[in-house]
Design brief:
This protein is of the alpha+beta class and about 120 residues long. The protein folds into 2 domains: about 5-60, no CATH class; about 65-125. The chain is about 35% helix and about 30% strand. It has 4 helices and 7 strands, in the order βαααββββββα. The protein has helices at about 10-20, 25-35, 40-50, 110-125; strands at about 5-10, 55-60, 65-70, 75-80, 85, 90-95, 100-105. The strands form 2 sheets. Strands 3-4-5-6-7 form a 5-stranded antiparallel beta sheet, with helices on one face. A two-stranded antiparallel ribbon has the order 1-2. A hairpin with a 4-residue loop joins strand 3 (about 65-70) and strand 4. Helix 1 crosses helix 2 and helix 2 packs across helix 3. The radius of gyration is 18 Å and the shape is elongated. The two termini are about 20 Å apart. The relative contact order is 0.17.
Amino acid sequence: MKTNGRAIEVTTKTRQELAKVFDCTERMVWKALTWDSDTPLARKIRVAAIEKGGRVMNWVPECETIHCTADGTMHQTFGNGAVIVADFGRRTVKVTDRHGVMQKGVSVNISLQEFANLQAWAASL
């Protein structure tokens, strides 16, 4: 799966049906469902997969999450030592590496998908 952590979950039977309907390989269906391909064919496959009951899933790397209600922050610590700190009051998200050096800061509301991408990025530092 690509590091964006997003995929459409369908049954094996549905993947086989999609390959047959779109006259392509099951590998192409997999690439479409994991956003490893973003061609017009891949977009059609994704639409059809959802119409057939597929669910868009977001995967996030394993991390320890601590919610600090006293100061309105959330801290996520990854196995590589990277830390994400989301400050809900200030509406900021910061990523530091294992040495505590800030690598990225975001000072706007971000979507769940953007946050999942940020988690994948932090886990890869």
